[in-house]
Amino acid sequence: MDALLIALLGCLLGEMGDKSQLLVLALAARYDRNGAIIAGIMIAAIANAAISAFAGAWIGPMLGPDARLLFMALSVLFLGAGLFWPVSQPDTLSGWRLGACLTTAIGLLILGFGDGPQFLILGIATRTADPWLAGIGGAIGVITALVPVVLARDRMLAVLPLRAIRWSGGGLMLATGALMALSAVGLL
């Protein structure tokens, strides 16, 4: 159950004010089809989380306990550092003529590849005995971060103190990742 909760909260935090939210906001304004956009979000989130959970389940048994902890620490550090990185407006996929659901699903799938939340799911899935719970938690976290943007549009992003959320979350992730890494190498 720890894997589910850590992945859910980490992915929710990692998506706050990120490129994925900006892309979803642009697509929601362009298509004005909330149901199709939300379906695309769910498809992309579940696909990215499943890929990460599968990879973690495959990699985990090849590593020793300390190596798995170090791998998870690196994923937490990567997510934490990413929260300090300035976010640029992603391509709004205006040339794509696939419809609201497919454009959202494929755009988010591509945007999420190698992103902090996906790497966090991979790290948690590698470390724990429950990689599928990490995938489920990560998918729920991403969906929870993106769906309100579709429903509330830019009002949500305007009211939330995104810089404070990203910086405090980044600091928390960096501290946690550093402690995990020190523990993995035997210095703590």
Whole-number average pLDDT? 92
The share of residues in helices is: over 70%
The rounded distance between the terminal residues' Cα atoms is: 25 Å
Q: What is the domain total for the residues?
A: 1
Give me the strand/helix succession.
HHHHHHHHH
What is the CA-atom radius of gyration, in angstroms? 16 Å
Instruction: Give the percentage of residues in beta strands.
Output: under 5%
Low-pLDDT segments: none
**Oligomer type:** single chain
- How many strand segments? 0
Protein structure class: mainly alpha
Shape: globular
Q: For the report, how would you describe the main beta sheet?
A: none
Which key features would you list for this structure?
188 residues, mainly alpha, 9 helices, 79% helix, globular
Short description:
With 188 residues, this protein is mainly alpha-helical.
